[in-house]
Amino acid sequence: MDKIKVIIADDSDFVRDGMGIILGVDEEFSVIGCAKNGKEALKLARQEKPDVFLMDIQMPVMDGIEAIREIVANDLGKVLILTTFDDRELVEKAIKNGADGYLIKNHTPEQLKQMIKSIYHGVNFLDSQVFGKFTEPETKFSADFDSSLFTARELSIIEAVAEGLSNKEIAEKLFLSEGTVKNYISVILEKGHLSHRTQMAIYYLTGRR
User: Model's pTM, two decimal places?
Assistant: First the structure.
């Protein structure tokens, strides 16, 4: 099995070394380079062709937000943001620029590795702590979300999914059976050309599929 090739971009020596050790001892991963900023990460990527970037947000010279834009524009790999910042504006910018996942630096090594594998296999991911930023009372769906694709009932289902509710909780909230909720979700995924409920929530909140 081919190893997942990773570039670590973080301005902290401690983080780069720590992540390098965590991934380096696992036969499923190959750390092909480390960078102190986005510019170095892009240079490495053009030389080494990574599968996944572990990317911090705030770095000197070129930050993670700008680096994501360049990575996506040049098809250099997938990006998992790994940061201490959960500011809503930063999250929105990262996702809209093309980040495939957003993770806060408070997870175990095994959780981190699982998230990298998920991103590698095409599953987008938002940290539950980040979801909280989008589910405050004033939250509205993104202007880039096409609500005209869905019925009023489907929109209520999508909103509930974006709030992080399970099928059972949605059923109780909307006075439906779990089976009916499951059917609605299947129809919504098909209408929106979406792969899974996390992608549905990301589309609703940020307008990015």
Answer: 0.66
